[in-house]
Design goal:
8 helices; nine-stranded antiparallel beta sheet; 24% strand; Jelly Rolls; alpha+beta; 2 domains; 278 residues
Amino acid sequence: MPRPASRTSLPMLSVDGIDAFIPSRQRPVRVRARSLPADTHFEPHRHSWAQLAYCASGILQVTAATPDEVTYIVPPSRAVWIAPGALHAINVLEAADFRTLYIHANSTPAGWPGCRVIVVSPLLREMVLALDAHDGPGLSAAREAMLSGLLIDEITQANTQPLGVPMPHAAHGDKRLRALCEAVLRAPSERATLAEWSAGMGASERTMARLFRDELGTSYQQWRQQAILAHALPLLARGTPVSQVAAASGYASDSAFSAMFKAAMGQSPSYFQNKNGL
C-alpha cells in the first residue's frame, strides 16, 4: 500500500518582466511567449487581470483556487482560463512552449467568474501566434485590436471540458483527505480500494467517503475518475499506446479504460492521439 511521499522543491523561475505585458483597456490582450524547461515552477500568485494558460507544446499543471483548489493537467490541445484575482500556481511537467495570454478584467466573458478548461481550436491557436508578433513590424495597432476582439470571442465560444481535479483546502481541509488525494495522484496505477487507501491514512472508509462528499462535493469514485483523466491525457498526447495508458491508469483491460474515457470525454482515447484530438 503506497504511503504519502515527501515533497521536493522545484526550481523557481523569476516573473521579472511581467510589467511589459500588463493588459489595458487600449490593449486588452497581451501574449507572453516563453520556452520553459520541465520542472519549472511558479509559486502561487494572483493578478488583477484574467489569464489563459496555454502551451503550443509540452504539458502544464495548473493549480487554482476559486475558492476551492482544483488541479488541471493541460496538454497542447487545451488551455486553462484563470479568472481575475484567482490564486494560481503553475508547474511545467514536460518542456513547454508556454503562451500566456493576459486579458483585461473588463474583457472577461460574462458568467466566467471561476477557472475552466477550454478546447483550443485551430483558429484560437493561430490567433495566439499572430498576436505573439506584437513586437515585430507586421502587426499594426488596428490589426492587434481586431485580433484581440476575435480572440476573446473565440475563447467565449470555446467548448469546455471537466478536466479539473478538486483538492481539499491545504490550510482548512482535513489533512487525511489531502494526504489520500495526493497519494492517489502520485500513484494513479494503484488499484487500491477506498478502504485500503483509508487504512493507510489512519481512517475508516466511511469517514473518508464522508470527507469526499463534504469537502469536495463528490464521491471517491467520481474524484478518482477525474484524476485518471488528468493523468491519461498527457500520456495520450505523447502518443503512448492506449494499452500502456490503461495499465498506467490502474485498469485491468483496455476496453474498460476506453469505455470510461469515452463516456467522460465523448471521444475514444485514440482520438486524442492524432492531430484532430490534439
